[in-house]
Amino acid sequence: MKKTTLLAFVCLLFTVSAMAQKKVSELTLVYDAFVSTGNADPKLADAFDGATTTVYIKGNLSRSEMVSALFSSTTIHDSKTGTAVVLREVSGQKLLIRMTSANWAEKNKRYNGISFANTTETKTIAGYKCTKATATLNDGTVFTVYYTADLIPENRDYDYQFRNLNGLPLEYELVQGNLTIKYTVSNINMNPVPASKFDLPKTGYRELTYEESKKASM
User: Fold this and answer.
1) What's the number of CA atoms in the CB half-sphere (13 Å) around residue 76?
2) What pLDDT score was predicted for residue 9?
3) How confident is the model at residue 175 (pLDDT cuts 50, 70, 90)?
4) N or C end of the chain: smaller count of CB under 10 Å?
5) For residue 118, what are the contacts with CB-CB under 8 A and spacing of at least 6?
């Protein structure tokens, strides 16, 4: 193959790849949760089975809302400052927890050093071709994720565990205690996200620091 022909072929491959891959600054994802394994307290299983998680991404801001029959939890994160706010509602109690960038890093430290190994398996989720990858944490925990490389959020820090994944996770497992929960995307929306989604409530919540929230959990 002549050099000019080879160069043209390489350029074509890059062009096709760039056309297939779409970077987005605003995105809404809805995941449905299903408890796949585990023999934990039935109440804990009920808290996650059938729950939905909605993720909103707008520039450097992200909001993740989890709603189940027993509780709701919302996390608003600013990737520019690294800070976050968590809103929780359990048994009628409403808590607002502020987190510094150091708090955020501590909360997610189990995902430091996470590695992803692609497999040859693929499947289509929500119209996108996804590659199956095996994720391994430093503590030995292993879980499966299906991701598409065709849709890439510009804000890669919206989900700490997937910030080094080469694509958007559309199905994945999460180990919560003795439970393994599978999250699968049911809706993808690329319309603009209202800025009001990232407003914080001014009343109705008891405010805690991250350290106070950890003591309360203990």
Assistant:
1) 14
2) 44
3) confident
4) C
5) 131, 132, 133
146-152 own/partner pairs: CB under 8 Å, 24+ apart? 146/170, 146/171, 146/172, 149/20, 149/21, 150/20, 150/21, 150/22, 151/21, 151/22, 151/24, 151/27, 151/188, 152/21, 152/22, 152/23, 152/24
Pair 27, 188: CB distance under 8 Å: yes
Residue 69 · residue 46 · CB < 8 Å: yes
Name the DSSP class of 111. Answer: G
Amino acid at the residue 207: E
- The CATH classification number of 22-71+107-195 equals 2.50.20.10
Report the greatest alpha carbon distance in the chain: 72
What's the whole-model pTM score?
0.85
Mean of pLDDT values over 98-112 = 95
Q: What percent of the chain has pLDDT over 90?
A: 69
Q: Which of 151, 176, 150 is nearest to 161 (CA)?
A: 176
Quick one: pLDDT at residue 37? 66
What six digits make up the tokens of 194?
Answer: 């209202």
Residue tagged 């919540």 (tokens): 205
What dihedral do alpha carbons 158, 160, 165, 168 form, nearest 10°?
-30
Residue 98 token pair? 């502020």
